[in-house]
Amino acid sequence: MLVSGSYDEAVFVWDVRTASVMRSLPAHSDPVGGVDFIRDGTLIVSCAGDGLIRIWDTATGQCLRTLVHEDNAPVTSVRFSPNGKFVLAWTLDSCVRLWNYIEGRCVKTYQGHSNEKYSIGGAFGVYGGGDQAFIASGSEDGNITLWDVPSKNILQRLEGHDGVVLGLDTLSGKGLLVSGGLDGTVRIWRAEEEEADHVMKNEMD
After folding, report:
1. Do residues 98 and 78 touch, judged by C-beta distance below 8 A?
2. 52 in helix, strand or coil?
3. Residue 59, Cβ neighbours under 10 Å: how many?
4. Tens of pLDDT, residues 168-182
5. Is 78 helix (H, G, I), strand (E, B) or coil?
6. First and final CA of the chain: distance in angstroms?
7. C-alpha distances out from residue 143 to 15, 163, 194, Å
8. What is the side-by-side strand order in the sheet with 186-194?
9. How confident is the model over 86-97, as pLDDT tens digits?
10. Is 9 strand, coil or helix?
11. How far apart (Å, rounded) are the C-alpha atoms in residues 191 and 205?
């Protein structure tokens, strides 16, 4: 299956074998900014400029939960956590929020990057031998910001792009991070251990 968000405010679930729409979900009142599957494919999360985050049952198309922050900032990107218990959301108030979607509450807010205009995304990753989690996000100032998940401390800022960093993903088992920006470049970063610290370095350097 494949899930996509649409400018017509709907979420579509596709059968990739037949290239046909399996289900259309009337999801939001603004164009859909981001979607993601939970790892086992049973849930979908969607977000939009209406400030809403919605959790959907993949099999039935039923909306199980709607999340909205009191600030109601437009939500541009969403991501399930690897363990499937949380949703990470990027909003146009320069915040990344971690939601416990089962309880319907925001449990942590990460700040330190710039995001007020563009649809920016990020990813989860691990460091410290694989037992500590971080969040990585693009930014409109050209940097990539890494936060420690539980403490919300900024671990590192990666400089390399000339302009907005729109998206990135991690391959944590290999200590790799890949990023793409408006400068037209895709950059690959590799984790290195320096004096017991976790440091990402640009492979292009």
Report:
1. no
2. strand
3. 11
4. 999 867 789 999 999
5. strand
6. 38
7. 37, 8, 21
8. 165-171, 176-181, 186-194, 197-202
9. 999 999 999 999
10. coil
11. 13
